[in-house]
Each structure stands twice: as structure tokens, then as C-alpha cells.
Design goal:
This protein has helices at residues 3-7, 13-25, 53-62, 73-78, 112-123, 154-164, 186-196, 203-212; strands at residues 30-33, 42-47, 68-71, 100-102, 132-142, 171-175, 200-202. With 218 residues, it is an alpha/beta fold. The chain has a single domain, classed as DHBP synthase (Alpha-Beta Complex), CATH 3.90.870.10. It has a seven-stranded mixed sheet.
């Protein structure tokens, strides 16, 4: 069965997006799947402004361990976060910047609490480049202008979701894995979502939603 068939029990694409937006407003996580012919993976996504240590611990425990902070280009520029490499030749052009750590309020930077501190420091609208050390244990990603209509990636999906929910345009993501370390696919992602009360939606759902409601996002 394909994604759309497996997700039909959660309603149509518009309903799935609305449910995800409400979950984010309530401080809960969501699970976002990209296209089956792309990575075909699901990421746990949380809003930065409501992110808790317990949520970060769950991400570290249940996911790949590479926790990423999704920012707009303007936010990344304000923090002076250059690309991780000069020549990005990754298959999906994932826009990693240099990794970061909060300069204050952390120890080694790797614990759930320290990562939350780093993320909230970086996402603070008043944050400056001087508030962050480089490198660190949090991996910022630059969302492409235009969001999922410009690039059908989890990074753009995360920032779009935050804006659509009326939240600060910054979110965290990490790829969901199975207990054996393999990448979770749609059936496992759906079961995880049911277990942890996280709505499941797709990038395609978001594209349809933005087009139907003619949403212009930053």
C-alpha cells in the first residue's frame, strides 16, 4: 500500500494538516513524511517555543540522534551561520550550516537539557551570533524561501508548519528509526504516531493545503 492509502484513516490531506497544526499549537509533536520517491522517511517535529527536555529526550532515544534546528534564511543570516561545506553535493541539497552550542547555560552540550538550551538560545528573536559557539551538538538547517512549494523537504515542511500554526518560524526535527536502527517507514511511523498521540501528515498534504488556501509564507 502507498502513503495515501495507509494514511486514509486519518482523514483527507486538509484534515491531516489541520490536525497537525492543532497539535503543534498544543505543544505536541507531529510526524512528517516526505515523498515515497525521495527519502521516504518520517521526522518527528516539535515547535521550538514549546520544546521540553522530555520531548528532546524522546527524539534522542527514538530517532537517528542528529537533531536539527530548522530556521528561515533570515534567522540563519542574523546568527551568522554559514553553510557546513562550500560545495553542497548531497543528493537532496540539505542545507546544513555549521553546528552550534549555546555559549552559556550548558555543560558538554550533548544532553537533552543542553540541546534544548542551545535551540532556544538560537531561536530567540533577540539572539546574536555571539550567543553561540561553533561547532556544537545541534545542527541548524536553512529552509529555502518559498517553503514546500520551492523544495519538498522536511526542513521547509517544518518552518512552513510553524508559520501555518501561528508560531515562531523555528522547529526541531529528527528522523524516526526502528529499534534495530533501521529507518522507520510509513507503517512503523503510523504506529509510532498512534502510540505517542502525534498526527501524521505528508509533504504532499502540505503542498495541497498551501495551494488550496493560497497561503503566502515567508
Amino acid at each position: 500500500m502507498n502513503q495515501s492509502s495507509l494514511l486514509a484513516e486519518f482523514g483527507d490531506p486538509i484534515t491531516r494538516v489541520d490536525n497537525a497544526l492543532q497539535a503543534l499549537r498544543e505543544g505536541r509533536g507531529v510526524l512528517l513524511l516526505d515523498d515515497e520517491d525521495r527519502e521516504n522517511e518520517g521526522d518527528i517535529i516539535y515547535a521550538v517555543e514549546s520544546l521540553t527536555n522530555a520531548q528532546m529526550a524522546l527524539m534522542i532515544r527514538e530517532c537517528s540522534g542528529i537533531v536539527c534546528l530548522c530556521l528561515t534564511e533570515a534567522q540563519a543570516d542574523r546568527l551568522a551561520l554559514p553553510p557546513m561545506v562550500v560545495n553542497n553535493n548531497s543528493a537532496n541539497q540539505t542545507a546544513f550550516t555549521v553546528s552550534i552550542e549555546a555559549k552559556y547555560g550548558v555543560t558538554t552540550g550533548v544532553s537533552a537539557q543542553d540541546r534544548v538550551t542551545t535551540i532556544k538560545t538560537a531561536a530567540n528573536p533577540q539572539a546574536k551570533a555571539e550567543d553561540l559557539a561553533r561547532p556544537g551538538h545541534v545542527f541548524p538547517l536553512r529552509a529555502r524561501a518559498g517553503g514546500v512549494l520551492a523544495r519538498r523537504g522536511h526542513t521547509e515542511g517544518t518552518v512552513d508548519l510553524m508559520q501555518m500554526a501561528g508560531l515562531q518560524p523555528a522547529g526541531v526535527l529528527c528522523e524516526l528509526t526502528n529499534p534495530d536502527g533501521s529507518m522507520a517507514k510509513t507503517p512503523e511511523i503510523i504506529e509510532f504516531g498512534k502510540l505517542h498521540n502525534m498526527p501524521v501528515l505528508t509533504i504532499e498534504d502540505m503542498v495541497q493545503y498551501r495551494i488550496q488556501f493560497d497561503l503566502k509564507l515567508a
